[in-house]
Write a structure and sequence with these properties.
Length: 141
Amino acid sequence: MANNERTFIAVKPKGVQYGLVGDIIKPFEQKGFHLVAMKLVQASKGHLKQHYIGPKDRPFFPGLVKDINSGPIVAVVWEGLNVVKTGWVMLEETNPVDSKAGTIRGDFCIQVGMNIIRSSDSVKSTEKEISLWFKPEELMD
């Protein structure tokens, strides 16, 4: 039974700067998810404010936008069975201190403010996020 659920992940500037893009993508490939789209982009502050509209009133919001605007990100779309939930399990907790070894954040992150990856948290948010970062013709079937 095919499941075309998709998820969006972004390797944040620190992950790109530290050369971790391949290490972050590899587990998704090894799990058997299908790569649908990928690109290196320098997002504007306005674009990031649209993406992170949920926490816009939180005290950490300005620092979050500044951090992600500090360099290029790698935007990626994956497809597969339960890819949103599985992707969250593979990334682990937002706070790396709470993440287990063998997960992306557990292996490659040391503090919340320096988090190297972002992932959609639901199928609904995935649709919005993918449309913010990719044109329909950039998505492969």
